[in-house]
Amino acid sequence: MQILAIESSSLTAGAAIIKDDVVLAEYSVSFKKTHSQTLLPMIDEVVKMTETNLKELDAIAISAGPGSFTGLRIGSATAKGLCLALDKPLVEVSTLEAMAFGCGPYNGLICPMIDARRRQVYTALYRFDEELNMVCVMEPKLLLVEELAQNLKELKSDDENVLFTGDGMHVHGAWLKENVSKSKMAPAVCSTPRAAAVAELGAKKWREGKAINADDHRPIYLKKSQAEQEREAGIYTKGSLRPGESGTQAKIC
Question: Could you give the C-alpha distances from 193 to 12, 102, 166, 167, 202, in angstroms and in order?
Fold first, then answer.
């Protein structure tokens, strides 16, 4: 079993290769460059360094979201293009699930958070059972941090720790520490999405028969883009089209 994994849901871009449950290589970059600049060279590098024959891959795993709209689209297009070119299936891995998995095993709740602005976060809740299998306690949602705090009060016991991770932790961590009991903040090494976590979860899902045809893949956004929200609200920025306008307009001489 050999899988190439792609992570592009946030500022961090990554690629990893797992073979027979061993992560052979992982390449991550968290810098102000676009994923369109970094992702393909990173994939090429891990493939070369591990002497991987792409034709021998069993599948390609993708961090499916939620996260950055642009990042998810770039990762999705890259993964689908490779799958179609190589005739390989695609495995979708929730970005939040991969973030939580990278923090485990942990004795308590794990709460990955991706900042969605305006005091909103993409989030979910997970915990590891006695056999160290990760279990989803709350499905991925878009919540205000106040709503998340209320959900935590209802879902966790008074003496149970909750580990926050992700860029939402950096934005709202101080508030959560004051308003959620037994709050802990994840260290930097596991506070960003990792391609290696996507690879390991992707391998597990592939063995469970959860691979799909690449044509059927759609990123998980959980909310509409800013442009869609503005269009529905009747807000039109310079250069945008209003209802009834054609995308191609005649030049006025």
Answer: 7, 8, 8, 10, 14
Q: Which CATH superfamily is domain 103-190 in?
A: ATPase, nucleotide binding domain (3.30.420.40)
pTM over 0.85: yes
What Rg, from alpha-carbon coordinates, does the chain have? 20
Contact of 62 with 92, CB cutoff 8 Å: yes
The one-digit pLDDT tens for each residue of the chain (253 residues) are 999 999 999 989 999 999 999 999 999 998 877 888 899 999 999 999 999 999 999 999 999 999 999 999 999 999 999 999 999 999 999 999 999 999 999 999 999 999 999 999 999 999 999 999 999 999 999 999 999 999 999 999 889 999 999 999 999 999 999 999 999 999 988 888 999 999 999 999 999 999 999 999 999 999 865 555 556 666 655 555 555 444 433 333 2
Instruction: Give me the CATH code for the 2-95+194-223 domain, please.
Output: 3.30.420.40
